Amino acid sequence: MEKNKKILSRELSWLAFNHRVLQEAQDITVPLLERIQFMAIFSSNLDEYFKVRVATLKRLIQFKKSDRQKLTQDPSEELDQVLTEVAHQQEELGETFRNQIVPALQAEKIFIINEKTIKPDQEEFVRDYFTRKVQPLLAPVILTSDINFLFLKDQVLYLLIELTKPKQPAATAILEVPTKQHGGRFVKLPTSHKERFVLFLDDVIRYNLAQLFPDYKVAKAYAIKISRDAELDIEEEVSDNLMAKIKRSLKKRETGYPSRLLYDSTMPKNLQDTICRLIGVTSEELIKGSRYHNFRDFFGFPDFDLPHLKYPPQPTLAHPQLHGIKKLFPLIRQQDFLVHYPYQSFDYVLQFLNEAAKDPAVTTVSVTLYRVADKSKVAKALVKAAKRGKRVTAVIELKARFDEESNIYWARKLEKAGATVVVGLPGYKVHSKLCLITRQEKNGPVQYAYLSTGNFNEKTSRIYADHGLFTSDTRLTKEVESVFQYLLDRNPENKQFRHLLVAPFNMRARFIQSINQEIRNAKKGLPAYIIAKMNSLQDEAMILKLYEASAAGVRVDLIVRGICCLNPGVKNLSENITVRSIVDRYLEHARVFIFANNGEEKMYISSADWMTRNLSRRVEVGFPIFDNVLQQEIRHLIDLQLQDNVKARNPKNQYLGSGASAETRSQYTTYTYLEKLEEQIPPPSKSK
């Protein structure tokens, strides 16, 4: 089999993942307002894809021919395939909105009207709203012949307006739709007879264009938006001015090269040519869309206080052993604890940090921060600890894409509080999720660690499915300390890790060793299997090693939410490999790796996917689960996902319905399982 058949296209695989998101918008069993949210997620994902991946393909096309020949696939050919698939998905999104979402809203007496369907009794409201709330935010520009260049902001919606005037040539105007300044894309009209009406902000403007251009007759308005290259060009040395370099690069991102111009498909060809010339894009950047762009704005679609159109609530569950505990350290001193987000509360992490800040016995707090919340309670707890005299070390990854500004803000706040802030590592991103606290106790210092698959972010912990481990096991805490030493001294020498899997040191090699062990066991006729859950599988060496395992008779079950460049189920290559992807209410974000190990399962959970960047160009940490009870807990949750016959799909995006009468929807059965654990919490004792 040819190489490109063994290694599937990363770009097309990602688009297949985003199509699974679109499938959620099309699924009539998903509550209606949640389907609208999935439309927004699909659109937001695609925006980022163009800003990063498509922009990268275009950069590769500029390489010398000799350099391009070293690539797995010709970037020009791959870009053509990508744009063809995107065009198809963009059309499908429009059809989903028009033919499924809009009628479903109407059935609930929610009407998205436009400037042509405004009723007479709504006209006064729309005109008044425009005059008071919208017109002051507008700055229309008529494109005269002396305008030779036009700069459009990244990801901002514009209207191109055709104007006519008696005995004069036709004119064109452009204006920015002020979604951000307005506070959202949608305008709710007064409810009438239990009917609810919504207008796009752009349609409010369309309805009042005559008021904006009193000297012209308005012919038609067309929506456009541009996506720009989001890659930051930052030299890889780390110095005191890295923060300043990133801030300058963020400014450059705003003016990056165009990677896409999305336009209304009804726009005349001459107007397309004019706008392309003025903003400096070619026909290759043109992507045909419909009347409305920026569907990510549907994140702000009004819910009209209709709870039956949303997912039924799943109250955050208490951890059966951590709930109600006023002091965590004595409990963690005795045993390890796993917390599963978003089902269980992230508050235990906040309690861990706040307890450290207040505890006089705590001397040091070290943490890695990749993506923190805007109003981060995590960062505030670290600031509190620093102000109370703890030695706080915060390793903050300033190159976490699209979170750079937030991370810079908190880096400065922590520095002002007296913390030691490490803002980068030459050649690597720090993507591990670690916290290490040292506490002076009766018999000397004791270390407590928190290791996780997800970020220190209380906001995303409510929607990202992750695992976090609290431990004082010296096998782990001593090696976590070594990771922090490396991040501080940047000296890779003498950094030996026996228990932790740490990229770029031993993670790849240890995974390969574990796979090789399964291959040897399979050849001996011993039980041999691998179960691996991750966000993305792209690394070629790991894929080829899994093919080798399959050929040896090792059963490989993969749960891969996003990119998967492995081609499963191919005779004489991967016939013992299955791949499933689960897209549902929450974002599957955890990484779990299980190896049969001849009946004594080895289990790791990790911050790293099997992508080349994670295994070779990032500081990542995978950690074993030693406690048998916790191993069984993780294994049960993974088994639930392997049994999913409601939201699991194969690589062709076909649902893996088993045909059985009983349905298993893993995210819901996970909640039920953890809910039963919560029920083990004894009721509060009654005071006498």
From TrEMBL:
Pfam families: PP_kinase, PP_kinase_C, PP_kinase_C_1, PP_kinase_N. It catalyses: [phosphate](n) + ATP = [phosphate](n+1) + ADP. Residues 8-112 form the Polyphosphate kinase N-terminal domain. InterPro entries: PP_kinase, PP_kinase_C_1, PP_kinase_middle, PP_kinase_middle_dom_sf, PPK_C_dom2, PPK_N_dom, PPK_N_dom_sf. Mg(2+) binds at residues 371, 401. GO terms for biological process: polyphosphate biosynthetic process. CDD domains: PLDc_EcPPK1_C1_like, PLDc_EcPPK1_C2_like. Its cofactor is Mg(2+). One of its GO terms (molecular function) is polyphosphate kinase activity. Keywords: ATP-binding, Kinase, Magnesium, Metal-binding, Nucleotide-binding, Phosphoprotein, Transferase. It is an enzyme of class 2 (transferase). Residues 328-489, 500-653 form the Polyphosphate kinase C-terminal domain. The active site is at 431 (phosphohistidine intermediate). Its EC number is 2.7.4.1. It comes from the Bacteria. ATP binds at residues 45, 464, 561, 589. Residues 122-301 form the Polyphosphate kinase middle domain. One of its GO terms (cellular component) is polyphosphate kinase complex. An intermediate of this reaction is the autophosphorylated ppk in which a phosphate is covalently linked to a histidine residue through a N-P bond. Catalyzes the reversible transfer of the terminal phosphate of ATP to form a long-chain polyphosphate (polyP). Belongs to the polyphosphate kinase 1 (PPK1) family. HAMAP family: Polyphosphate_kinase (MF_00347). This is Polyphosphate kinase. It comes from Adhaeribacter swui.
